[in-house]
Amino acid sequence: MKFTDGYWLMREGVHASYATEVAETRVEDGRLTLYAPVRHVERRGHTLNSPLLTVECWSPADGVIGVRSSHHTGGVDRGPHFALHTDPDHEPVISRDGSTVELTSGALSVRMDTDAPWRLDFRADGRPLTSAGGRGTGFVTTAAGEHFSLGQLALDVGELVYGLGERFTPFVKNGQSVDIWQADGGTASEQAYKNVPFHLTNRGYGVFVNHPGRVSYEIGSESVGQVQFSVPGQSVEYFVIHGPTPKEIIDRYTALTGRPALPPAWSLGLWLSTSFTTSYDEETVNRFVSGMAERDIPLGVFHFDCFWMRQYQWCDFTWDPEVFPDPEGMLRRLKERDLRISLWINPYIAQKSPLFEEAREQGFLVRRPNGDVWQWDLWQAGMGLVDFTHPGAREWYADKLRGLTRQGVDCFKTDFGERVPTDVVWHDGSDPERMHNYYTQLYNETVFQVLTEERGENEGVLFARSATAGGQQFPVHWGGDCESTFGAMAESLRGGLSLGLSGFGFWSHDIGGFEGTPTPAVFKRWAQFGLLSSHSRLHGSKSYRVPWDYDEEAVAVTRDFTRLKHRLMPYLYEASRQAARRGTPVMRAMVLEFPDDPTCHPLDRQYMLGGDLLVAPVFTEDGTVEYYLPEGTWTHVLTGERVRGPVWRRETYGFDSLPLFARPGSVVPFGANTAGAVHDWVEGVTLRVHAPADGVRVTTPVPAPDGSTAAVFRTRRDGDVLTVEAEGATGTWHVLLAGAGVRAEGMRTKDGVLLTASPGTAVLSTRLG
Predict the structure, then answer these.
(1) 47, 117, 304, 616: which could join 308 in a potential S-S bond, CB 3.0 to 4.6 Å?
(2) pLDDT tens, position by position, 21-40
(3) Which residues belong to any copy of the Glycoside hydrolase family 31 TIM barrel domain (predicted)?
(4) 336 tagged catalytic
């Protein structure tokens, strides 16, 4: 929200009050409190008839400093609040040096000269990060009587801002006005399904605004050298989070707001959907499943979208008996084909459903201030909204889901959660403005807990559309309703990369696009992109997404890239474990892996899949693609071509390939089985070694599908000798020295030289060149 009219003036009816100096300082219980008048106090009379801001600084964890600026503090705290995970044993250091007071947490500190004009300086390892200067701490009132609290942090020259959730606008957020406010806006607008009040920059820090309601950002868009954030109300609280690398920033941020759960290994396989408004029954489902099998396209999950239920009755958790007369038998038959089952749900109850009256009588639906149930006809006729602040409503909703899991359902697509009214009363008295964004957290948490309880640890997985800060704990999230075009494919990737830089480890999208029907070229390119994402789903709106509806080449592309993903499972699941441990996303913006390469900072049409594979999807009809390779010798995974970076390349690819490069020095494990996502990834594993650096040791864990470590390989090159040590590998394993021009003893392939270790071999050594 903009408050100023240029540099000198305020907008009509707007009055701003900013911290001007420090009147008093207090240190108590590891907390630094600064009392800041909003005018220069020259004499006692100036302390009258003027606001005094209370600014508190503290540290919840190493490398994180919180700041809370408050005007009036007598209001009732109605919640909700983000659940934060603080370190109870962490104690910051507070020191004084003359007029300067400083709070230090790890390498991060905030400093204030109490004799100087107001300025909070944030520093790390002796260098400045950012500062809240003359307009950096304060509040604003409007002619309508609105009160907003704001913070403003300086941007350095060349500093770029990322994150703020899944946003489809330009990847670098400089120059944008962003409202953190849940909306069902598709992927082609400035609105977002997943709004997260957290951003990070390429200067070694991030900022989390601890407000679950509307947060309005001006990112170099009002004051061009500042990031401003404002919230309605009397106070604003934010955390400055030090890195210095982007990975370390996300690590600390997700430690504070919650780590992503590790999704089950089977969820990384290919999902096939009925699509949305298409006609389907068990015969249709069987035709799809059989069609995939006949064409040797491995399928892992089958998804039933909305119309598995009776029309006008969503969401009543009951199969349409006319279309699915024997749901238990149908699910059993699908499971006999080694498939998992996903069902669509939403948090709305249509008036025609018998559950509406059941929920109304028990007070489980959100109500208006006069006591009426809140209802409208948008989406479902007369629908109400489940009040997840009511413990009874959460248990009631959860129990409906348990009935479905016991029929054989394995996971749920938790659609919607954004259209949440503010003219309502919540059971627990929550502030409607704060609950608008936060509702999705309660919704997805309720569903995720049911799946974890019913299926076991590391078996819970959603396919969720809406989220806010902390929502990363309940994967997976998908990109929402996009068009079936190359442009929409690119905007989806921008959204996914932004979400990854907002702490979300797992992300997916509708292969082929949702709205409309893709051309064969769009479908094939999107299939490549989708099967090189953390999760992969074929889904559309009014048309099916079975590949043979497009052409036979689409069948081949889907089959080949599904098999490739299955071979990559030991690598991808290790990347998944990294997401669960540290918050590092599986799909990574280039800046995340190459923060010291300025060329990588704005890139949004390519990404790293895990830490070692670079993917550049093709967004053109003729197969032309431009991409950048950072420094070192990169190896094309599909052709074995070696390319020396840093370099920009412009090439044309057929539908059987795309730029997919292994990082210099990487060791990427490929499984032996292409038939499914879940198998013994160690048995027959091939370690693909790419341009190993002399004297560097690379450790490659290979996980088991249950999330444990099955084996560990250690690769080292010493001069012209390459040695691989194996721990836990009892069967046959292989080493592929990838790339053109590799010379070693072993079987030559089009990709390089393959060496095979017999069962039980602990050390394999070969001479290069």
Answers:
(1) 304
(2) 999 999 999 999 999 999 99
(3) 260-574
(4) no
